[in-house]
Each structure stands twice: as structure tokens, then as C-alpha cells.
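Need a sequence for this fold. Nothing fancy.
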């Protein structure tokens, strides 16, 4: 199937692509990447060094200058890195020019490469070619984007694990178990004289039990891992004027929320992404939870309740100068079923501040209690529970959906065994489970699926 995909993927074997692989902003250096059958000859048309790049050894770096072949004008001094296929990132001949990082300079060099025979790379096309050339499977290609988009240590480690092939190895092992059973059934149906199917259905159910347990555990870890990798959806809730917006500003590091002594200032949900120790929080400031006759404020209160419903964590802010009120008790009931950390705020205004069991003494004005808050959140969402040594962490939604599909197919096998269906029907469901797992690796997938995966990538990757 991989060969069919390569044949149907828009002449990639005949074209040489180029793009700036670093950000198009002023910087110390910029890297311009070429890949394709004519990468070396296209590079030689603009590169002037001691040797032609076509003649140098692979995986070597060469000093030279970029020269406009039309005007003979020198553009920049560069280092040219040559990596010949198949031992390169894409599996093709690759040249990377490291030039000075001026925006105009990088674009000028890129323009010269286009006029010399290269074509603009599409987003993610270098990694797409690596996949199509068999340098990595689809789960590893998706891990590249996970590494690029990582916003915390956990997300980075998950991406590196995927790129290393940990996911691929686990999926291939599961597929092997399913394939063995499918092959036995098909052999028995084709050659009943030499293969005995009597009592096999029960043995099949027993053999598939550990496979289903593995898939179930992968999905459990995946759901937990997604929260840690993408950010813990954290809602700041409480009564008006308890200090919610001050806490939001403190955690975000910016004066994003308006803070006044007027109750009901916050009407809508404010959201920002913040790093908090080794984890990330998708932090949301919400309207104060109270009964109100103000129509606009009522909308804000309802949005606050909706945010709590979708939250992974609630930071409930108490006004420590007033203590726990009936409104607080009612508001806390809105958080039932969610992990809740109660912050007794405004301790800087209290002479003898004390907290009830489970509460954290806090001051959003001075930052007192931040260490205790960080420790509490880390205890609730402990990334160290996933060691990356024994567990594979899948955070990609496409892969998770295919895991669920595979598990559902194996559950159908169980139902077929209970209903005494023939082995042909059992083999059909086993084949569906195998196919779903194969899609995770990028085998037997359509060009449309591949295009959707790589359209998320940035230019030059």
C-alpha cells in the first residue's frame, strides 16, 4: 500500500522542493532546505565554493557564497550541508543552506533556488516525503509535529517517544497477535483436514483478552496524556470580588483581566495558556457565581457554569475576609465531580489567617501560597505517573480514534463467539481490528488522510 501511495502523490519523485525551515523573522541564522532528485544540481547553480556540491561526500558541511547566476551578485556567505539519499531526513538528496537570518536575505536565496529549478514546498512536505519514502511511519511523522508544538516537558517527551518509534513498536506487537489468529482461521477454512476448529472460538476469546486489555490501557493513558500534553483546562471560579481576576493575572503573568472593587466586573470567560511548573494550564477566568437580576451578568454566570462542566480542574477562590458563605457552598456544588482546589484568598488582609482542611491559604496580590498551589496541582496531575519506559503515551486524536475502532472490532469478536457465529464472521472482525491498527502506522490509508495529517505542519518541515 505504501508503494501505491507513493505513485499517487503528485510527482514527488520528479520535483525538487525548497523552503525556509526556520521562522521568517530576523534572527542570527536561517536555514533553507532543498530536497529532491535535483537538489545538488539546483544548489550548485547558486552556490560558489571550493567544490561543486555534486562531487562532495555525503553528510559534510562546506563554506561558500550564494551568488545570483544572472547578475553574478554576491548575496550572502553560507554553510552548505549535504546529505545524500537514502540516508537523509526525506530519503532523497538534501541540501541545507545556513545563511544570515535576515528576512530579505532568506527570501532572496529562496527566490534564486526557485528560478534555478526548485519548486516551493507545501506545508509539511519534507516530512511527508520522509513518510512516503519509508523513512518513518505515519505515527512517527505525527510525532514530529507534536515535538514542534510541544508547550511543556510532558508534551515534548511524548513527541520524542513517538518519533523514536515506541508507538509503532507497540502497535506492531498488537497487530501480530491479531494476525496470528486471523491466519489460523483462514488456514483452517482453506484446509479443514489439517486444522481443527472444534473449540477454537473459546480459545480465541481467551487469546484476545490480553490484547483488549492492552488497547484499553493505551486508551486510558491516552486520555490522561492528552490532558497533560495539551494543557489542563483550569477554571477559576468563586463569588464576585473573591479575587478570581487577580489570580488569573497572577498566574498568566499579565494584567489580562480587569480588577476593580465593583462586583460582577467579569462578564465573559477569559482564556490563556500558561506554563505552571512542568505542566501547562489552559486558564479561564469566569464571572462570579451568584444570583443576579442583571441580564448580561446572568449570561456570564451561565458561561462560567458551562466552563466548569468542561473543566479538568477548578480553582475555587474564597474571600478569606468573609469566610465560607451560603453562596460559596452553593457555588461549590456546581463543581461536584470535578477536581477542586479551594484557595482561601486575601490572606494579606487578615491578621490571623487560617484554613480548613484541604484549603490553601493564598494571596493573589502578593503571590503567597503559589508554591503550595503548584504542589497540589502536580499531585493531582502527576506526569511522573507515565514513565515513558514501560508505557506508550498516545496523545494524537486520529490515533486514539483508531485505537477505539480496533477495540470495538475485538469486542464484536467476543459477541460473535457468544452468539456462536461461524469463524468466517470472527475473521472479518479480526481483519477490521488489524486494519484500524494499520492506519495508525499509515498503512492502507488514503491520500486524503495523509493530506489531512500533513496540512497541520508548518512550512519547511
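Here you go.
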Amino acid at each position: 500500500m505504501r508503494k501505491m501511495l507513493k505513485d499517487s502523490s503528485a510527482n514527488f519523485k520528479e520535483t525538487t522542493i525548497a523552503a525556509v525551515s526556520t521562522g521568517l523573522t530576523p534572527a542570527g541564522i536561517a536555514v533553507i532546505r532543498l530536497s529532491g532528485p535535483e537538489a545538488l544540481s539546483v544548489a550548485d547553480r547558486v552556490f560558489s565554493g571550493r567544490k561543486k556540491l555534486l562531487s562532495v561526500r555525503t553528510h559534510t558541511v562546506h563554506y561558500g557564497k550564494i551568488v545570483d547566476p544572472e547578475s553574478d551578485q554576491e548575496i550572502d556567505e553560507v554553510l552548505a550541508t549535504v546529505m545524500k539519499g537514502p540516508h537523509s531526513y526525506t530519503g532523497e538528496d538534501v541540501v541545507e543552506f545556513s545563511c544570515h537570518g535576515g528576512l530579505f536575505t532568506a527570501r532572496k536565496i529562496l527566490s534564486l533556488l526557485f528560478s534555478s529549478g526548485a519548486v516551493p514546498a507545501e506545508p509539511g512536505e519534507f516530512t511527508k516525503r520522509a513518510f512516503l519514502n519509508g523513512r518513518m511511519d505515519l505515527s512517527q511523522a505525527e510525532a514530529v509535529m507534536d515535538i514542534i508544538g510541544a508547550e511543556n516537558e510532558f508534551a515534548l517527551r511524548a513527541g520524542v517517544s513517538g518519533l523514536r518509534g515506541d508507538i509503532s513498536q507497540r502497535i506492531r506487537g498488537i497487530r501480530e497477535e491479531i494476525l496470528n489468529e486471523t491466519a489460523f482461521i483462514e488456514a483452517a477454512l482453506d484446509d479443514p483436514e489439517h486444522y481443527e476448529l472444534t473449540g477454537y472460538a473459546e480459545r480465541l476469546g481467551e487469546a484476545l483478552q490480553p490484547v483488549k486489555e492492552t488497547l484499553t490501557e493505551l486508551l486510558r493513558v491516552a486520555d490522561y496524556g492528552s490532558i497533560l500534553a495539551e494543557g489542563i483546562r483550569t477554571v477559576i471560579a468563586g463569588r464576585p470580588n473573591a479575587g478570581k481576576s487577580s489570580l488569573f493575572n497572577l498566574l498568566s503573568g499579565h494584567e489580562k483581566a480587569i480588577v476593580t472593587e465593583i462586583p460582577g466586573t467579569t462578564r465573559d470567560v477569559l482564556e490563556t495558556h500558561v506554563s505552571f511548573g512542568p505542566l501547562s494550564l489552559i486558564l479561564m477566568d469566569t464571572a462570579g457565581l451568584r444570583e443576579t437580576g442583571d441580564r448580561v451578568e446572568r449570561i456570564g454566570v451561565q458561561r462560567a457554569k458551562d466552563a466548569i462542566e468542561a473543566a479538568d480542574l477548578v480553582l475555587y477562590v474564597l474571600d478569606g475576609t468573609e469566610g465560607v458563605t451560603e453562596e460559596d457552598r452553593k457555588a461549590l456544588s456546581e463543581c461536584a465531580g470535578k477536581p477542586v482546589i479551594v484557595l482561601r484568598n486575601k490572606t494579606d488582609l487578615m491578621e490571623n489567617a487560617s484554613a480548613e482542611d484541604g484549603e490553601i491559604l493564598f494571596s493573589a496580590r502578593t503571590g503567597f501560597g503559589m508554591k503550595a498551589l503548584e504542589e497540589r496541582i502536580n499531585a493531582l496531575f502527576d506526569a511522573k505517573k507515565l514513565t515513558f519506559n514501560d508505557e506508550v503515551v498516545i496523545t494524537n486524536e486520529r490515533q486514539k480514534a483508531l485505537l477505539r475502532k480496533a477495540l470495538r472490532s475485538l469486542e464484536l469478536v467476543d459477541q460473535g463467539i457468544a452468539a456462536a457465529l461461524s469463524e468466517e464472521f470472527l475473521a472479518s472482525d479480526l481483519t477490521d481490528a488489524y486494519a484500524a491498527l494499520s492506519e495508525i502506522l499509515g498503512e492502507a490509508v488514503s491520500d486524503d488522510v495523509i493530506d489531512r495529517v500533513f496540512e497541520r505542519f508548518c512550512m519547511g518541515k
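For context: Residues 233-383 form a domain with the Rossmann fold fold (CATH 3.40.50.300).
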